[in-house]
Amino acid sequence: MSGLFDEIANKGDNIASGLRKVAKEEKTKNRAEEDKVSVVGETKGVAATAVSGKKVKGTPKVELQSGMGEKWVVEFQENQENIEITDTKTKQGVYIYSCSNTLVTVKGKVNNVILDNCVKINVILDDAVASVEVVNSQRIAVQINGYVPTVNIDKTDGIQVYLSEQSNVNFVYSKSSEMNILVPGEEDTIELPVPEQFQTVFDPKSKKLVTSVLDLNL
User: Fold this and answer.
1) pLDDT digits (tens, 9 = 90+) for 4-15
2) Is 169:189 a contact under the CB 8 Å cutoff?
3) pTM confidence score
4) CATH code of 140's domain
5) Three-state secondary structure of the chain
6) Which residue range or ranges hold the C-CAP/cofactor C-like domain (predicted)?
7) Less packed terminus of the chain by CB within 10 Å, N or C?
8) Is residue 108 part of a domain?
């Protein structure tokens, strides 16, 4: 590498002296239309993998894995009407990764349910000992038929959580938008939007920040 830099420095202004000049007929603008190479800007649609950054799908999987605790793994499922997980135990977790346009039903009581990097996923579950977590996802619907103590939402846009009559859930969320909680009403389901905008005021007396929900219903 140092030898290369020394050679460049020695040539100075004559660095391009050894390069061959491009003949007139070799220039792209002078070529026939059938000989021209397509440019990146002409690539459109789903096939433009390198341009759009579309992730490569892995092998679809639904299986119970053991190791650091047991967990049901649902990966790379797409356009599935209903994937049912029925043989569950309270010590088992459910991990749903990189799935799209799919319904997953979890029967019985499990330890926790995690959705990661999913799009248009509906999850129906009975009970969870610890929590339901949704991260890096879009357009998610979660229906809790029994009891779940905590729902964690992180980096997720567009999520609806349907609660049952016995639900008493603590919601923890960050860097997310379009969040709605739906609860049973006397006649119809009540939809409650989760606040996304806040204002923080510095209190000079206490030397602390006081944060409150920004009321947009003026």
Assistant:
1) 445 545 555 554
2) no
3) 0.71
4) 2.160.20.70
5) CHHHHHHHHHHHHHCCCCCCCCCHHHCHHHCCHHHCCCCHHHCCCCCCHHHHCCCCCCCCEEEEECCCCCEEEEECCECCCCEEECCCCCCCEEEEECCEEEEEEEEEEEEEEEEECCEEEEEEEEEEEEEEEEEEEEEEEEEECCCCCEEEEEEEEEEEEECCCCCCCEEEEECCEEEEEEEECCCCEEEEECCCCEEEEEECCCCEEEEEECCCCC
6) 59-196
7) C
8) yes
Asked if residue 150 is part of any domain, the answer here is yes
Q: What is the pLDDT of residues 69-116, one digit of tens each?
A: 899 999 999 999 999 999 999 999 999 999 999 999 999 999 999 999
Q: Which domain does 169 fall in, by range?
A: 66-213
